[in-house]
Amino acid sequence: MADEVVDCMGLICPRPLFETIKHLKRMQAGQTLEVFGDYPLSLPEITENMEKQGHELVSVSNEGGVWRVLIRKTK
Q1: Which among 43, 31, 42, 35 is positioned nearest to 7, based on CA atoms?
Q2: How many angstroms separate the CA atoms of 3 and 1, rounded?
Q3: Which residues form the catalytic set?
Q4: Which residues of 4-31 are buried (b: 16+ CB within 10 A; e: fewer)?
Q5: pLDDT digits 0-9 by tens, 43-60
Q6: Can you say whether the dihedral through the CA atoms of 48, 49, 51, 55 is positive or negative?
Q7: pTM (2 decimals)?
Q8: What is the pLDDT of residues 32-47, one digit of tens each?
């Protein structure tokens, strides 16, 4: 279970990425954030950005038009 969850259903780029970054800034290193949504272009945008920032992608899924990303904050 994630420490925090961000619901991005119905949001389009770049809002899901902005919401992800906003929540991660408030979190402590080691905590996990689950982000989910339905806008297909947000999934690669979020995963690529999190990798560039050095955060750990614990899991990534995309089923039935809904994607989910579990991120562990590393710093």
Answers
A1: 35
A2: 7
A3: 13
A4: eebebeebeeeebbebbeebbeeeeeee
A5: 999 999 999 999 999 999
A6: negative
A7: 0.94
A8: 999 999 999 999 999 9
